[in-house]
Amino acid sequence: MIRLLLVMLIGGISLQGCAQPTPERLGTPIEGYSHTSAAINRFSVNGNGGPNVGPYGGGGKQNCCAPLPVKWHPGLTVVVEWEKDPNPHASANWPPLGTDGYRAA
After folding, report:
1. What is the residue-level pLDDT of the chain in tens, covering all 105 positions?
2. Is 11 left (phi over 0), alpha (psi -120 to 50) or beta?
3. Is 62 within a domain?
4. CB atoms within 10 A of CB 74
5. Which domain, by its residues, includes 37?
6. pTM of the model
7. What's the CA gap between 67 and 46, in Å, rounded?
8. What is the CB neighbour count within 10 angstroms for residue 102?
């Protein structure tokens, strides 16, 4: 009986080494939205981001991933950056789509 308990104890302890470590950060999907008449050329959350977002558009297209801590703690912050189209209405005066002039613009 004591041998069986000893074998079970040693077996249980040895299996502890196979346990996966708990991650400190997880990748969280992010989406971009523009609530203005200007396109967002790019955006990022904690340095990871996504493609451009059209005027008054976005959503429905998640990008992977913004690394966030598994556990919340006081003072937790994220860095959100974006680049707004500096001249959102310039394309109104461009040549027709598919032409050499359009490609140059």
Report:
1. 676 555 565 666 665 666 677 878 888 888 888 888 888 888 888 888 777 888 888 876 777 778 888 888 899 888 889 998 888 777 777 788 788 887 876
2. alpha
3. yes
4. 4
5. 23-72+79-84
6. 0.57
7. 7
8. 12
